[in-house]
Amino acid sequence: MSEIEEVFFDIAIDNENTGRIVFELFKSTAALAADNFYHLCKGDVSKIINGKERKLTYKNNFFHRIVKTFMIQAGDIIYGSEAFEKSDDIGKGGCSIYATEEDLKTMKDLPCYGNFKDENLGEFTEPFYLAMVNTGEPDSNTSQFFITTGTAPHLNNKNTIFGKVIHGKSVIRTIERCTVDEDGFPSKCVKVVDCGEWNDTMPVPLYNACNDQISGDIYEEYPDDDKNFDPEDFNKAYDAACIIKDSGSALFKLKDFQNALFKYKKSLSYINTFIPEEEVDKDNHIKFSELKIKIYSNLSLVSYNLKKYDDCIMYSRYVLDSPGVINKDKAKAYYRMGNTYVVKKAYDDALSCYILCKENNPNDKVIDTKIESVENTIEQNKERTKKNIAKFFT
Prior knowledge:
single chain; alpha+beta; Cyclophilin; Methane Monooxygenase Hydroxylase, Chain G, domain 1; Serine Threonine Protein Phosphatase 5, Tetratricopeptide repeat; two-stranded antiparallel ribbon; 10 helices; 16% strand; peptidyl-prolyl cis-trans isomerase activity; peptidylprolyl isomerase; repeat; rotamase; unfolded protein binding
């Protein structure tokens, strides 16, 4: 087998790029499965199947079974790499690089070609293991695989574990959260749009979150997947949420507003996951609550810069509805809502917000200018309306 130990999938959901998953393959404990997966990612092996030469590859293969908190499954390169549709055949096929010419000439009730032996029949003690799917019989592995999204003790010592996810765990979680039918078949196509070798000089693209480690954000997108601190340590959890917020602010300063938004949402997720009840830890409850107000405020600002005006108003209202919010933060929220209503040409609402901003921050001279400007606009609109009505009756 090649010295390359890592391979990647680029995933798209409903034709929209989602991100990259990187796997580390367990060459030393599952050499057959690891070598098979490696070459199916490279797409450098072809076989004659049913009289036609066919490249064996995971490229354009789609996930056909998703079970939340259990696993996501793909790799049926016989039936699962054509048009995305549910059928009685999907999930019944597969072909490994070990398929022989004689094997491929033989039609079977279950077209799984090139079965190979089980290896590393270990225990599924955590999510993000990469394992082979078999037919339920020993040594019946081909190309189908699954990635665990939780523990799976009922599979212990039954399936070959040959790798693990080292990057792109949030992509796995995005796939896991797709809507499925009663059989676990997704409503939208979750496809491997590209795959191949990977090394640490290559990027890990992500399109629905931000994995930039600017300002020290080393944390997983989903708090439950992070192993950088004890989840019972509220101080460490608070520090993590602050670091993620600071990462968003660093991106905001670079005018990378979309990724700043992702970071602020990530920080909010950590806050909501780890904030202790007041009766459990009052001091940390207060700290987390104050940080949440800052995040809401930052989300309103970055939403405004992204021209997501309804979101700007929503997050500003979250600030105003937060227990213990101070006048300074109220003033910011009203100010941003006022600016947003001006853009939406809802001048009466804008004026109301500016006046409330002034009440909460009386010494701010900028707001005086805003109030004067919007009052002039309202008066001009009234005069324009009067003139139009007068013309109508003339």
